[in-house]
Amino acid sequence: MSFSNNSNKILHPHFFHLSGIHPDLPVYEVLSVLESESYSHQHLKKSKQCLVLNCSEQGAYLAAERAAYCKRAVKILYKAAVSEKTITELADKITRKIDFENKMKNHKSYLVRVYRIGNAHSEFNSMDLEVAIGKKIWDKMKGTSKVDTKNPDINFVLLFTRDELLFGKEIYARKKGSFVSRRPDKRPYFKPGTLEPRFARMMVNLSRASSENLLLDPFCGPGGIILEATTMDCNVIGLDIDKRMIKGSLKNLKHFTPKTNYDLIIGDAKQMPFHNQINSIATDPPYGRSTSTYGKEIEELLRQFFKEAYNVLVPNGILAIGMFAKIPIQEIAKEFNFELSIFEKIYIHKSLTRRIGVFIKR
C-alpha cells in the first residue's frame, strides 16, 4: 500500500479489530509496534477486541501488518451509539455525512463488510446491512463506482462493539491462514514444543524490536522467534547451547527468509559474547519435560540468565520472556534491576499456562 508524503504526520482516529486470545496482550502488541518504530499515537479508547487510537495511516498499516493478533486496521469515518430500529435507518445514518466522492477519488470499486464483537447488535443481519450501505454509497457516487466482491479497490468496514458502531476505510486486513505455512510441523526442521508463529511474532513485537535495532533470542531452539523477526526485517541474533538447534534454525531461516539479516551462534545464555549491544531480547526458555536445561534447575538458570541479560542490553533495552506460570519470574527480574512493563498470564491449553513478562533495563 502506498502512502502520501505526509501520511506519517497527520493523526486520525483508527480502530484496530483484535483477536480475542487475551483481553490485553493484543492491545500491548499494537502499541509496542508503534513505539518501536517511533510512530506518534494517542490512546483514545479500549473495549473488548477493539482498540481506538489517534495515529497516522502509515502507522496504523504497519502496526496491523506486524501485530500477530490484529485482524484489521480501519480509518474511522463515522462512529455513534446505535439507536436505530431498522437496517434502512442505520445505513442512512452511517452514510449521510460522509463525503464518499472524496474518499473514493480514483477508486472505481468498493466492498462493504460488517463485523461484530461477540453478539453485539445481532438484530441487524450482516449481509442485509452490507447491501443497504453499499446501495447508499452507490447512490451518493451517482453510479460512478460499483461493488466488487472479489477484488475491490477499497473496503469499507462496519464494526459493532458492545456500546457503539465504528465505520471506516480499511487500511490493512490480515489474510486468513497467513501463518499456516510457517507452522512448526511444516518447517524443514521440526522440534516438539516449538512456539506457534503467531505467539512467536507477538513476543518479538512486545520486545519492541524494529528494523533499526538488534534483537536477540538467547534460547533460540529451532528458531521460532527469530524466524518471525526476520519476516519483519529485524536484525536478528539467535543463540543456543545446542549445536543441533543452531543447525535446525539455519535450515528454517534459509527455507523461509534466505535474504534477511541474521546471525546464529552456538553459545551459553549465561555467558553471552555481547556487552551493552542488544536493544531487544525476545525468548521462551526451555522448561518442559521435552526440553533440556543441561542440568540446571529452571529458577537457577533464569537467575543466571537475567544477570547476563542486564549486561548485554543497552540502557532502556527491552526483555520479553515467556515462562510457565509457577516460576516467580517477576521476582527474579526485580533481583537484577529490571523494571516491570507488562506481566500477563495466558492460557495455552489444559496442561500449559504461560506468564508473559516484559521488562526494561534501567
List the helices and strands and how they pair.
Blueprint: E1 12-18, H1 25-36, E2 41-47, E3 50-55, H2 57-66, E4 70-80, H3 87-95, H4 100-104, E5 109-116, H5 126-140, E6 146-147, E7 154-160, E8 165-173, H6 197-206, E9 214-217, H7 224-231, E10 235-240, H8 243-256, E11 262-266, E12 278-283, H9 298-312, E13 313-324, H10 329-335, E14 338-349, E15 352-361
Parallel strand pairs: 5-6, 5-7, 9-10, 9-12, 10-11, 12-13
Antiparallel strand pairs: 1-3, 1-4, 2-3, 4-8, 7-8, 13-15, 14-15
Helix pairs in contact: 1-2, 1-6, 3-5, 6-7, 7-8, 9-10
Summarize the structure in words.
It is a single chain. With 362 residues, the chain is an alpha/beta fold. It folds into 2 domains: 12-173, VC0802-like (2-Layer Sandwich), CATH 3.30.2130.30; 180-361, 3-Layer(aba) Sandwich (Rossmann fold), CATH 3.40.50.150. The chain has 10 helices and 15 strands. The protein has helices at residues 25-36, 57-66, 87-95, 100-104, 126-140, 197-206, 224-231, 243-256, 298-312, 329-335, and strands at 12-18, 41-47, 50-55, 70-80, 109-116, 146-147, 154-160, 165-173, 214-217, 235-240, 262-266, 278-283, 313-324, 338-349, 352-361. The strands form 2 sheets. Strands 2-3-1-4-8-7-5-6 form an 8-stranded mixed sheet. A 7-stranded mixed sheet has the order 11-10-9-12-13-15-14, sandwiched between helices. Strand 2 and strand 3 form a beta hairpin. The radius of gyration is 23 Å and the shape is elongated. It starts with 11 loop residues before the first strand and ends with a strand.
Structure in a nutshell:
The chain is built from ten helices and 15 strands. By secondary structure, the chain is α/β, with parallel strands linked by helices. The protein folds into two domains: 12-173, VC0802-like; 180-361, Vaccinia Virus protein VP39 (Rossmann fold, 3-Layer(aba) Sandwich).
